């Protein structure tokens, strides 16, 4: 009988612990039930009642996950909708060109129509690439990897990559400031892929709408690096500069030429925002032209 009080005490302690653990885990069980019965398309936050801090953290982590998933799903839906909408016109044009060529027995007409089809396909592919770049940029906030990037080396590689296209269009593409690489430090913490995307879009815009000269300029101070793309084309009126950094906004030259979809500068602006690099547009000089400048902080 001497052990009976100890047994009773242990039993009472076990019951007390069981009820305490069940009470503390009840919010977690409720969260599990809520998630189990939730529709797969419902990404709204779940209610997290104030309980133990550990349970609250689980609920907050679940809600943070829902926010990221919702952003990803919205980006994918926007991408799919944009592709479906924007490709309708070029695909219809390709079909019309093909039908005209098939209905005409002249080999010369076939060749002309095939060349036009190839050009239409190239524009459609470029549009899809731009839409995909914007969709990926909208999801890049949480996964952006910053690492040391040598802007002088990246600019040099970019110029070489676009040189053949520029020569084919009779455009003088070059760089200024690269020879100062030994005296100046052009290393910044950034994402090399995003900087390449910025330069690719700016050079592509300059080749389409600029003049006969495109220059990539680099300059550095002890605390920052400045990267600019300058052309001697017609430039952009100051009143239209902000609008052209919005999606689907197209300048009069692009409308007149029937080229582009108004996404190039929007991609540049979004990438610059992700890189936290201030972006500015200005007239290149007294004769006009356009200067697009980004400022990167060192370190």
From TrEMBL:
Residue stretches making up the Histidine kinase domain: 82-299
Membrane protein topology class: Multi-pass membrane protein
Domain (HAMP) ranges: 22-74
Protein's UniProt name: histidine kinase
Catalytically driven reaction(s): ATP + protein L-histidine = ADP + protein N-phospho-L-histidine
Enzyme Commission (EC) number: 2.7.13.3
Entry-linked InterPro entries: HAMP_dom (IPR003660), HATPase_C_sf (IPR036890), HATPase_dom (IPR003594), His_kinase_dom (IPR005467), HisK_dim/P_dom (IPR003661), HisK_dim/P_sf (IPR036097), Sig_transdc_His_kin-like_C (IPR004358), TCS_sensor_his_kinase (IPR050428)
Main location: membrane
Gene Ontology molecular function, alphabetical: ATP binding; phosphorelay sensor kinase activity
Cross-referenced Pfam families: HATPase_c (PF02518), HisKA (PF00512)
Keyword line: ATP-binding, Kinase, Membrane, Nucleotide-binding, Phosphoprotein, Transferase, Transmembrane, Transmembrane helix, Two-component regulatory system
Subcellular location: Membrane
SUPFAM superfamilies noted in UniProt: ATPase domain of HSP90 chaperone/DNA topoisomerase II/histidine kinase (SSF55874), Homodimeric domain of signal transducing histidine kinase (SSF47384)
Organism: Variovorax paradoxus
């Amino acid at each position: 009988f001497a052990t009976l009080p100890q047994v009773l005490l242990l039993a009472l302690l076990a019951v007390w612990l069981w009820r305490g653990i069940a009470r503390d885990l009840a919010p977690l069980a409720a969260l599990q039930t809520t998630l189990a019965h939730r529709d797969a398309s419902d990404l709204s936050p779940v209610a997290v009642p104030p309980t133990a801090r550990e349970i609250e953290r689980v609920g907050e982590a679940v809600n943070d996950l829902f926010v990221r998933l919702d952003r990803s799903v919205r980006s994918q839906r926007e991408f799919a909708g944009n592709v479906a909408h924007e490709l309708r016109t070029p695909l219809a044009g390709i079909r019309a060109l093909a039908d005209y060529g098939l209905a005409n027995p002249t080999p010369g007409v076939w060749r002309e129509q095939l060349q036009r089809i190839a050009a239409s396909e190239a524009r459609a592919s470029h549009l899809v690439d731009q839409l995909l770049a914007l969709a990926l940029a909208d999801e890049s906030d949480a996964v952006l990897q910053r690492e040391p990037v040598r802007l002088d080396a990246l600019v040099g590689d970019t110029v070489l990559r676009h040189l053949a296209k520029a020569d084919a269009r009779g455009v003088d593409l070059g760089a200024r400031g690269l020879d100062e690489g030994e005296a100046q430090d052009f290393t910044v913490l950034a994402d090399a892929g995003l900087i390449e995307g910025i330069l690719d879009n700016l050079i592509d815009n300059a080749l389409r709408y600029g003049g006969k000269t495109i220059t990539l300029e680099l300059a550095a101070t002890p605390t920052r690096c400045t990267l600019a793309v300058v052309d001697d084309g017609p430039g952009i009126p100051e009143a239209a500069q902000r609008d052209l950094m919005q999606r689907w906004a197209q300048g009069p030259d692009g409308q007149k030429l029937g080229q582009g979809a108004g996404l190039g500068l929007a991609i540049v602006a979004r990438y610059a925002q992700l890189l936290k690099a201030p972006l500015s547009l200005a007239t290149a000089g007294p004769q006009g032209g356009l200067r697009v400048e980004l400022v990167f902080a060192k370190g």
